[in-house]
Amino acid sequence: MVPTTIHLMRHGEVHNPAGVLYGRLPGYHLSERGRAMADMVAEHLSGAASAPRRDITVVVASPLQRAQETATPIAAAFGVELRTDPRLIEAGNHFEGKTFGVGDGSLRHPEHWPYLRNPFRPSWGEPYREQADRMLAAVDAARELARGHEAVLVSHQLPVWVTRLAVEKRHLWHDPRRRQCSLASLTTLRFEDDRLVGLGYSEPAASLLPGAATVAGA
């Protein structure tokens, strides 16, 4: 049996002073802390931070700027090409570009309320099942490229989380507050040939999380 490991990584902290749900909007880059997170994960994976060096031969990122910037130091640390896969992109969301909340946010406007009618699909954006399916297709493609080695796929919180729920055979609707997918975290899938045999979660940049800014669906 051939072992292959896929690390699903959430990007680092984003510069977002307006506090909007930026979704797929262009131009949202990593903050200074976010760049430090990306560097810290690269050091962790490459063995420069006293952890064992990982056998990474493939690095792939969502086309969005924050994911590309997060993946860049990892690809550099292993001397591999940074690939892009559009299937790793953030989930589509009706509230993209808006603040989301009851006070001064979108929820105070009745025209947005119909988008909240079905949290199980969800009605405000790309269905959970579609997200999981495209992410799993990206995992399969990376697994073929890295067969016998390891790959890092840099994506976004919600797509990574629904992928984990899917492989664990749990229902995909969930409480966003309970996602185990912090900034710059790694959700690790271990395969033997084509069979998933293990799943792990780690936070190599945990020391930089206190005080970091997050936005739902980021």
From TrEMBL:
GO MF annotation, one: phosphatase activity
One Gene Ontology cellular component annotation held by this UniProt entry: cytoplasm
SMART domains: PGAM (SM00855)
Superkingdom field: Bacteria
Pfam families for this protein: His_Phos_1
Cross-referenced InterPro entries: His_Pase_superF_clade-1 (IPR013078), His_PPase_superfam (IPR029033), PGM_Phosphatase (IPR050275)
SUPFAM superfamilies from the UniProt entry: Phosphoglycerate mutase-like (SSF53254)
Protein's name in the database: Phosphoglycerate mutase
Naturally occurring in which organism (per UniProt): Cellulomonas soli
Taxonomic lineage from the root: Bacteria, Bacillati, Actinomycetota, Actinomycetes, Micrococcales
